[in-house]
Amino acid sequence: MEDFQEHFMGQEEFNDGDKPLLSPFNPPFRPTRLHIQRSSICSRAYFVVVMVFFHVYILNVIGLLLYVHYNNGPGDLVSRDGATSASVGDSGSPLPHTAAASPSGELHVEDYSQSYSLPRIEGIRVGHVQQVSLVPDKTHEMRTISLKPLLFEIPGFLSEEECRVVVQLAQLKGLMESQTTVPSQGQEESNQPLLSLSTEEVFSLLDLNQDGLLQKQEIVSHSRSRDGTWLSPDSLRQILTGVEDCPTGMLTLGDFRRVYDVSQRTGQQKSRKLLSQFKQRSKHTWLYQGQGSHHVLHTLRNRIISLTRLPSALVELSEPLQVIRYEHGDFSNAHHDSSPSHSETTCTHTRLAGNTSALTEVSCRYLTMLFYLSSVEEGGETTFPVADNRTYEEHALVQDGVDLTDTQETCGRGNLRMKPTAGTALLWYNHLSDGRGWMGELDEYSLHGDCPVRRGVKWVANSWVNVDPDHQQQARYQRLVAQRHQAKSGMEEHYQPLSHSDLHQDL
Ligand SMILES: *[C@@H]1O[C@H](CO)[C@@H](O)[C@H](O)[C@H]1NC(C)=O
Ligand SMILES: *[C@@H]1O[C@H](CO)[C@@H](O)[C@H](O)[C@H]1NC(C)=O
């Protein structure tokens, strides 16, 4: 008891600041012993050392967590070399559990729903400028043009030389008419009624590996190049049904004749009201940007990845680069690049992973990057008729005889017009966020069109990033592609029709 009191007093004494306030009752040796204890446990120096260790430890833990996070980050959803573990066996089963057992750095399917998200660039306010670093030794300025849609302008995204190369590659590949009145050039993606092609020609074009048989994968591959193309979703579905009904799972030319009457088809059936009135006149082509493509095209895609901060797998699995040439008077009416999601529609780009039964296929494009490859002397602006409008009503687009989607008549009346300047890029989001980090509703304000060119020639390129609003479907699709790549590297001689490379091998 007394001992304790003494100890306590000793501490008091210490706290009072090392004044040797000795009680007369204390034996002389006690303070010394207490002093040793005090200096070892309670001194400031000791405290500092402990705190430093503690902080270093915490920093280490944080560092380790960050390291793990970035190494398993969303960008690695599809591992590049297709080493996606054995879990990809069944495309239909949702989120197989075996995936988590794969070695680190590979696909973690179970984490998917929590961790996989689509970054969005902050607009802050109209006129806000942010610095972005896309190439070494240079920063670009990105200016917020509007918030509805979220639209940015980046001058000098492409150098003059790069613009020239892209235009020349497009010319080398050959441009197709995007309009319906000029004779077809026999190209795959011309908008012509199929009447101008014979059954043999159609069959041969569909038969990607030229083995004289139509496989399911070939039909599925064609759904990718659908935009403004000669095969409507209806036709593709009809052929696909034929393939599936066939016991061998393949169609010969003879079977094809029975399944699909080429002469019957005279064009595309458009499903949406806005699309049914969609008019355009221009020439276009598609440039593949993946492995083996021209380095400028490759670089361009990498710049899109660094600018948008989207998972590289998403960008790499998106549509090829579309290059368009507008001559005098050429235009496109206002339209949306993407589609509203309904239960009865399915995304074209992920259709392989989904349900090939009676659904309408639509383009699902999270964002658009538009590159001006030339400057235009007069006209040819990109118009956003309802950008940052207070409200949006589809019926208000056509009022008092003024149709805001009709760029030939009303380009001057839209809310926003961007003048083409060579090298400048525009980036806009076609979809809102769903509030949980994934792609949400179509942003109706993203309506845009091309004013008629008055003087000069306008060259632009479009790069779209395809995302399925159903993120499980997107994940299934990416697993399938990874699986394909794996199979492809395994047995080269076997035909693996899925990625764009099969469709756009030439450039
Ligand atoms: C395919 O679609 C049908 C009809 O919409 C539906 O009943 C079925 O569950 C779907 N299958 C898959 C795998 O999504
Ligand atoms: C644009 O906003 C105005 C003001 O709210 C509205 O009257 C008009 O209908 C809107 N335009 C469209 C196309 O919705």
UniProtKB/TrEMBL annotation:
SUPFAM superfamilies: EF-hand. It comes from Sparus aurata. Residues 81-106, 484-507 are annotated as: Disordered. Keywords: Calcium, Dioxygenase, Iron, Membrane, Metal-binding, Oxidoreductase, Transmembrane, Transmembrane helix, Vitamin C. The chain crosses the membrane at residues 45-70. Residues 317-467 form the Fe2OG dioxygenase domain. InterPro entries: EF-hand-dom_pair (IPR011992), EF_Hand_1_Ca_BS (IPR018247), Oxoglu/Fe-dep_dioxygenase_dom (IPR005123), P4HA-like (IPR045054), Pro_4_hyd_alph (IPR006620), Pro_4_hyd_alph_FE2OG_OXY (IPR044862). This is Prolyl 4-hydroxylase, transmembrane a. Residues 490-507 have a biased composition (Basic and acidic residues). The gene is P4HTM. Its cofactor is L-ascorbate. Signal peptide: none annotated. Gene3D superfamilies: q2cbj1_9rhob like domain. One of its GO terms (molecular function) is iron ion binding. GO terms for cellular component: endoplasmic reticulum.
